[in-house]
Amino acid sequence: MKIFNFTTHHNALKQNPNYAAHPQIIQRAEWRPGGSGHIFTDKETDEPFIGVAVVHIVDFRLQCTPTGSFLESKYGTLEKAKYQFVGGRTHGKNGFDEDFTRIHTLLNNIQNAIAVSHNKKDMLLDQQSIRFARNIFEKREHAVPDSPTSSRRTVYLEDLENPQEFPTEAKEVLKMDEETANWPVDEKFSDEMAEIKAFYKAVPLRVYDEHDKFIEPADVNKALCNAIAEIHFTLHHTYLPKNTPPQDSFRANIEQILILQGGKPMTSIYTSDPRAGPAKLTTHHTPPPPEIPPAKRVHTQAEENTSTKGKEKERA
Description:
Layout: H1 6-13, H2 25-28, E1 29-34, E2 37-42, E3 51-57, E4 82-88, H3 96-112, E5 120-121, E6 130-135, E7 137-139, H4 157-161, H5 168-173, H6 178-181, H7 190-196, E8 200-202, E9 207-208, H8 220-224, E10 228-240, E11 247-261, H9 301-315
Parallel strand pairs: 5-11, 6-11, 9-11
Antiparallel strand pairs: 1-2, 2-10, 3-4, 3-10, 4-6, 7-8, 10-11
């Protein structure tokens, strides 16, 4: 298996003006009104600024399954579910460790440039981590009938009362997309999915493995766990004055994820039958210290005198 060259990749990214450790970003981009708040925008292109960061994706708050952060109805609705994960230091990957501090500081400065309150939430969880997120479902411009492959199908009363032929363009609009029709949610969430898919479409994360191969939505969570990845993201801000206390919400919105090094599964020697006896730490013993050669003997003056007298007696 080919080992990824982090040194070469780090050197290349340092030349990229979108690399989030680049010192000129805060001069090249600015906050502008957009969506429900503000978008960090490139001054030259007038497009959302795309930042690039390399992080270690930890298993804490890793929610990139097809239902993401959705747990159950009492905690929120499925259409508001998000993919989300926490990125931290890369632990010695040739320069990226030091850059993480620079990226974290830059993002904090970008936040401070627009924050209204002292409560800056959601993106910088602490000094050691950055939260990345993205909505799973996107609202449709036009509602469509439910998928024919589903156990449920939405039937509109007005269509039953006034059957008519729609033009080709309208038929295309009303066609359920394959991605949403076959979105691989857990069976226990099938009812919630059936309720929203006529109005919302599922949008897969753009995640690619070490060989640039697309990772299917059902496999993303496992692929990202403990991986070292290059994250492409945009920055969004919303001020929430009605919260108590008021707060500024920030999001590093995921645009693309390139896995540079897959995560290693956590292993334990304590998985055997406990009644079979204690687990042996043979592979974890501290190696014995190397044998120390005996110290060279130091000849004292007395020994030399004795040796000399012995030789004189032999001559006599």
